[in-house]
## 1
Amino acid sequence: MYTGKILESMKRLEATRGERLHQEIPLLSPDDRQSLLEGFHPDYKEAIFRTLKVGPSKGERTPKEFADVFEAYSAIDPAKFDLSSVDLDVDVLVVGGGGAGAAAALVAQEHGANVLLVTKLRLGDSNTVMAQGGIQGADKENDSPAIHYLDVMGGGRYFNDPKLVEALVSDAPDVLAWLERLGVMFDKEPDGTMTTIHGGGTSRMRMHAARDYTGGEMMKTLRDEVLNHDVPIMEFAAAYELLTDGKKVTGAVLYNMETEEYLIVRAKTVILATGGGGRLHVSGFPTTNHYGATADGLVLGYRVGAPLTFMDTIQYHPTGAAFPEQILGQLVTEKVRSIGGQITNVDGNRFIYELETRDVEAAAVIRECLGKKKGVETPSGQPAVWLDTPIIEVLHGAGTIKKRLPAMFRQYERFGIDMSEVPILIYPTQHYQNGGLKIDAHCETKVKNLYASGEAAGGVHGRNRLMGNSLLDVIVFGRRAGAAAAERAAGIKRAGKLSLDHLSKFHKELKSARVGKGRISPMLLPEYRRPEAAKKKINALA
Amino acid sequence: MASEMVTIYVMGKAYEVPRDLTIMKAMEYAGYRFIRGCGCRGAFCGACGTVYRTKDDYRLKVGLACQEMVQDEMYLAEIPFFPGNKATYNVDKLKPNSETVLKLYPEVFRCLSCNACTKACPQDIEVMEYVQAALRGDIEKAADLSFDCILCGLCASRCPAEIVQYNVALLCRRLYSAKIAPRAKHLDKRVKAVKRGKFDKELAKLMKMKKSQLAKLYSEREIQKAD
Ligand SMILES: Cc1cc2nc3c(=O)[nH]c(=O)nc-3n(C[C@H](O)[C@H](O)[C@H](O)COP(=O)(O)OP(=O)(O)OC[C@H]3O[C@@H](n4cnc5c(N)ncnc54)[C@H](O)[C@@H]3O)c2cc1C
Ligand code: SF4
Ligand code: SF4
Ligand code: FES
């Protein structure tokens, strides 16, 4: 499989395996960590950012790709748009069919609300279904929500919103129990004790998993539950714009992805659970995210006046696939390192403790390749370092990888690489949006009756999220949003008038900031057609 | 780096595409913009089931467009949706046995043991084995064997008995996990402790701390040794 220089480098890695087996590398000191981040983490590169000139977070900086969708016009012309006939009238409109959306819809319905869940692709096509590694929760004797709290805050560099973190760690046991009751197949000991391991930045072993399909198993179960409860859902229906009565959110414009027809929904409350923005490809990084991760919810919320927070920090996962090219950017789960996988350079030497937080780990890989020139060069020119996977089998016995990491194993096997016998090549990839819409502990944004939860919201994880806290986040805050939005809706007789006045205002601001008319958002889907093919088209059926 | 080109037929229409692409990327190269048939792009969501045939071979093959590489003279069509039967139920009220499975999915009885499903599965799951296990009432085995299922529907598309294997599997996994696997007792204990407010004080203290105090606690915190 590997040839030439790569093969030679692999031999060197194999030669050092014995001495690496019991080699201990200490965690970096806070100072070393900081200087590593400042030197090599993309978040510290001024050139990739732009300061927003328009909207509720004016003056704050965000990567250019995000700024481009925030500072953009709607394809709807508010002056001409007909809002007179309402197609659907609901209590709670849930936007997004991932973990947060499904949990919100179930709980809102349980609270007696008349719910509609709309999603851009199919129910479950999401980042949630792709999560492999696990979900955190302090449920063991040697652990507590307080210890979990400290880990979350430390991971987030103490910028996290304490109220949101408190909610996260306090709800965690109940969330796990809820999922267990619903029939999520967690890894367990024969007596029912949850099997838990470490993740980057955890001080206790509190990572729960369902083999290496944790998010998939959760999503399949939640989706089944949404269907069993007959929650009204609409697939291939994107939320394209929110509607307000001038102040409060009162509904949304939906866009049928297939027929291109729009629908007007009147809703007493709206929950944005639209997930992240990996498909914006910040600085051209590849991404682990699903096809619909284009930050639409942030755009919609921003236009009605909901401020964003922490949009200047993106999580790059340290171990994205760097080879073969067909899977470039796809996730190699952190669990590979949690159970003993080691990162080495071209000479087979380790250069960082494997369970540092992700930002530090990613920066260390970038430094090794770009700074120290100790990376392995792949045929496509993509730099990489090794992730020694066979060492896992040495540590835990033959067959461990196939048993505990079946998804990973299969991924590589499809391309002829047996990762239990040979190491794999990795490089950081755009993974998680640390920031998002600013919310309170009930998930309400700064705009009344507009809620946000999951990856679309920001503040829970501060400047850096730990693995396993996001699957937890989506259920904790999905449920909270569902309950709060349903309760609020119960007190509203009828949603107010439906208007796009906020959009007219926003468009005016864009114009005075001299933003060109050509920039349109939300993006809905990324453009991956061959550029020549995408450009050479006639809008003949318009 | 120019790569070698091959001809693929997307729903019968020919396109020249580079050989080293997956079916999904090849279709995008050709100019298709997916709305259906593309979800995760990484073998997790099952949105991209594809049926294809290669030249001079009568056999129909199936695979995931996001994983399968193109081949020269490949004739393909995606099946982005499969209208499979899905029962509705309340897991809480079900017993984990074969009666439950057969009541909700009586068609499981009709399995001919032809193994077409297993041959179709892009996840290399022993699909027929889990269907048979479900039929026998061995819910644990059905759950275990089917665990890696991504609901792509390719098995069902090939089943002469019109069984919707993946929905049967999902039922079994939920039954096993909710009704057979022993509950995590430490979890219930912790849920009760949280409700009683056992951790409130400690959390309140942490929430009031300044960054420097937290940082000190953080760097001094004890890290559990992995076993
Ligand atoms: C490969 C991968 C592995 C991961 N592993 C882990 C892990 O091990 N542990 C962990 O804790 N976290 C992990 N994460 C992170 C975690 O999975 C996500 O952050 C989390 O699942 C996000 O859930 P969500 O419900 O907020 O968003 P999503 O699950 O992404 O759902 C968002 C939904 O909204 C829909 N949508 C988007 N725009 C619109 C629109 N305009 N209108 C209608 N619908 C729309 C999307 O199509 C999607 O269905 C991983 C993420 C990835 C990508
Ligand atoms: S069992 Fe069926 S639905 Fe599940 S992955 Fe295999 S072929 Fe797809
Ligand atoms: S394809 Fe259908 S009939 Fe054949 S073995 Fe599978 S489930 Fe049974
Ligand atoms: S796109 Fe999700 S499995 Fe292929």
## 2
Amino acid sequence: MAEQKKIEKQLSLPLKNAVQMSVRNMKVRFGRAIIITTSILLGIAFLTSVRAGNAFNMSLILNGPEEISSLLAVDIAEVNARQGWLVSLSLLVCIVGIINAMLMSVTERSKEIGTMKCLGALDKFIVELFLLESLAHGLIGSIAGAIIGVLTMTVVYLIQYGGLIFQIFPTVVIVKDVLFSILLGTFLAVVGALYPAYISAKMEPAEAIRREV
Amino acid sequence: MAKEAIVRTIGVKKSFMLGKVPLHVLKGIDIEILKGEYISIMGPSGSGKTTLFNMIGGLDKPSEGKVYIDEVDIAQLDAYELAWLRCRKIGYIFQTFNLIPVMSALENVMLPMIFGGLSTDDARNKSRMLLESVGLGERVNHKPLELSGGQQQRVAIARALANDPAIILADEPTGNLDLKTGKEIINLLREMNKEKCVSIITATHDLKMLDVSDRVIWLRDGIIERVEDRENITIKVGEVEGE
Ligand SMILES: Nc1ncnc2c1ncn2[C@@H]1O[C@H](COP(=O)(O)OP(=O)(O)OP(=O)(O)O)[C@@H](O)[C@H]1O
Ligand SMILES: [Mg+2]
């Protein structure tokens, strides 16, 4: 054998191109993008509304008139525990939904992934593309969800307690809750996409291309 | 003139496990392909052409044996080097074209250059030039689905040439095309082969391919039945058609 020639290494996928490709993919597969984003939106809207409700309650107990606060203070602990369960469950459903949707989108694009690997894509380029997409789903879904959650609760409390809630509006707590929800929603979307992205990146190109859908 | 081997396989075997039963698809393939050669691999359906391609192209691993590309044993390469090899050394053409559907012709051709580290501007210019050279100068902004099969395959050829590979692997490039378009694609491949001195390896049932091939490798049931040089090919054509 002749001497093993040294292969100089240089492969890249600039972020700009990756973002462009992800955006393009989401536009073309708009239906799927909407479903994933909506599932995140619903989960996060639920989480945020529960937390905003708690914030209103706490603020009413601390700053509201005597008759309301004493009424609320009685069963607050029990209510919190029950709501904790509901929120966890809804988020779980949300993650399973994301993983499922991403798995389908990976299977659907198996040939495309195989082709890209033939053109020199590294595994991490593929993962990057999927993660970028789910990052966008996560951000959009959870921002919208958080806003919807807070608005819904504000309306509910407005109907129940009238203008009083604006006097005791727990701004700081609610802003914190919203930020928390957005972070959590985005994190979950990215984590939910990791597994399918990893699977797709690991396939041998021959197998990925063979797998007709 | 000593010609260098660009591809060499030594005792390549491949088997797939179907449940518990191994299916031996390739049963020991030794071939040597020289720089600038145009090789056709012929054989009935199921004889293992695509499987052999995947071994040569580093798209799958042989169960046994070695594949050398440009004297490098590709089993020794890590994932990064293998991706680099696919990017820079080998161009792939498929029966089903395999263009990225959401990208225009231009962007499809640009993609391997972007992976290869070319700037977007340089990639765009080179991509235009390549599309022009395959006769698609007017259609650069069309999506694959807006192009005919023959045009899509031209885009695929331009994409395969993007990083000036040493080898083009074409698995039944004319399989989905009509006679005339198939002929055009074959001529285009031959032209590129002459012009750029790139080795072309095609798998095919297409007898039109025989005219342009330097050598034909006949594959049957995972072994090489015979290898023919160009001079002997024409004589055999009648015999083949009788098969
Ligand atoms: N991933 C796989 N798993 C199991 N069997 C496989 C796999 N890939 C190929 N085979 C089998 O290997 C044999 C050869 O397949 P291959 O695709 O290489 O044939 P081919 O010569 O390319 O045929 P065609 O001309 O129809 O494309 C077939 O019997 C096929 O079923
Ligand atoms: Mg085949």
